Amino acid sequence: MKKIMIATSIMAALLAFGSETGVDGTANATAKLAGGLSITKDGTTSTSGDLAFGTIVPNAIGGTVVINPFGSGARTPSGVQVISSTYGPAAFTLSGESNSAFAVTLPSTATITKIGSTETMTVDTFTSTLSGTGLVVTGTLIGTGGSFRVGGKLHVPADQVPGSYTGTFTVTAAYD
To answer: What is this structure's pTM?
Structure first.
């Protein structure tokens, strides 16, 4: 009988101490998934949102035409003549999560090709109205959207064949 009482006492002591060997705490796990960024061409500008170099008179030495994305989108020719026509920077609208930082990657080069032919010209030295220099520029969405403009430099080879040239370039946006 003594053995049963001792064993019962030991079991009771173990159960009493065993129930207090750990305590639990809880916390919530939370996350907010941001909506994706979207980037669209702003077709409401005088150039319908496109990077337009205007009408250029080719010559025997060639040259360049630069479109500045800032202010009025000034056009600066070098070595070639430009005549009155519509010109200006490309315009984009960016939308996404309010007050989020983002980065936009500009292309290093683009090619425009004469419609109905194979002659080409190169566009490079892309610049934008966003902060930073180089091909990756940054900004912060004010509210849920914002806009920016993109300029560049067109290289006109010597004796370039007259005609209308067109091509595309891509800008890529991502949360930063």
So the answer is: 0.81
